[in-house]
From TrEMBL:
Superkingdom, natural source: Bacteria
GO cellular component: plasma membrane
Membrane topology, record value: Multi-pass membrane protein
Places the protein is found: Cell membrane
The protein's name: AzlC family ABC transporter permease
Amino acid sequence: MQARFFSPLGKDVVKAIFLVCLADGLVGISYGSLAVAGGFPLWVPLMLSILVLAGASEFLFIAIVGGGGSPFAAAAAGLLVNARHLPFGIAVKDLVGSKSLSWLGCHIMNDESVVFGISQPTHEKRKKAYWLCGAGIALFWPVSVIAGAYIGQFIPDIKAIGLDAVFPAILLALIFPALRKRRTLIPAASGALISVAVVPFVPAGMPVLFSLLGLLAWRNKK
């Protein structure tokens, strides 16, 4: 893609998108290192990074399978995590392109590309921001996974330097602002308690699914 195509976005937006892609790349290094250290051959995290292109689901998959869980439970958990893409698709339906291009446009849809896309003032800028961020992450993520897998071969214990905690820490940082509201805090805390409580009784990977029961802890009051 030529630089002129994205020039209407302005340098500040392009710089912000680049920094987000770079941050995702750092997380990808953690993911690649964890996958290789967990006994997965390189092609597994690499193919997931290209075909799935959803960091949370990929981390969850290798964590569940690496912990002895069923691949089917891991896939189900990943689908649930990515259920948020349904409303995302509605929000960016006019940005993903048409006909065969829409398949690629949907594939590069993620939290970051959606945020940058819908936050621009005009349709032209929304579309270009969406595609620049989505394509950037689609490039940065697999490359960083390969780099992480290579680095992971030389690290005796990735837990000793905290690489295993990078992604959970990022997720916690993202959800903390939302936890200020009781409407979010109550279901989240309930789901966490349920998940921890069932750990001794269900196979690996299933506690994540049980945590969804926390959503029942809040009922709309009329």
